[in-house]
Amino acid sequence: MSKKISIEEVRHVASLARLRLTEAEAELFSEQLSVVISHMSDIEELHTGQHIQERYNFVDETALREDRSEASIERESILKGAPLVEDFMFKVPPILGEGK
C-alpha cells in the first residue's frame, strides 16, 4: 500500500493554492488523495510489456517546424475591413456585463 496523504499535507497544498478548507474538507481530501495515490501505485506495478511502451514512443515531426520570423500583415490593411475600429483596434460589443 502506498503512503497516506496526511491532513497537514492537504492543508499545506491548500495554502499554496490559497484555498480555505474546513476540517471536514481537509479530512475528505486526505482520504480521496490517498486512494488516488494508491491506484497510481497499482498502475505502476503492472507489467505491460515492451511492445506497449514502444508503441507510444514517437515524435510527430509534422508538429515541429523551424522557428523563424516572417513578415506580418500591415495593421491598416487588417483594420480597414473591420466594421468598427477604435484606437487602432477592433471594437466589439461587450459580452460580459455592461459596456462603457
Automatic annotation (TrEMBL):
Spell out the Gene3D superfamilies in the cross-references.
Glu-tRNAGln amidotransferase C subunit, N-terminal domain
Keyword presence, Nucleotide-binding: yes
The UniProt keywords, alphabetically, are: ATP-binding, Ligase, Nucleotide-binding, Protein biosynthesis, Transferase
Which chemical reaction does it catalyze?
L-glutamyl-tRNA(Gln) + L-glutamine + ATP + H2O = L-glutaminyl-tRNA(Gln) + L-glutamate + ADP + phosphate + H(+); L-aspartyl-tRNA(Asn) + L-glutamine + ATP + H2O = L-asparaginyl-tRNA(Asn) + L-glutamate + ADP + phosphate + 2 H(+)
Entries under NCBIfam families matching the protein: gatC
**What is known about what this protein does?**
Allows the formation of correctly charged Asn-tRNA(Asn) or Gln-tRNA(Gln) through the transamidation of misacylated Asp-tRNA(Asn) or Glu-tRNA(Gln) in organisms which lack either or both of asparaginyl-tRNA or glutaminyl-tRNA synthetases. The reaction takes place in the presence of glutamine and ATP through an activated phospho-Asp-tRNA(Asn) or phospho-Glu-tRNA(Gln).
The annotated subunit structure for this chain is: Heterotrimer of A, B and C subunits.
Q: What is this protein called?
A: Aspartyl/glutamyl-tRNA(Asn/Gln) amidotransferase subunit C
Which organism is this protein's natural source? Ferrithrix thermotolerans DSM 19514
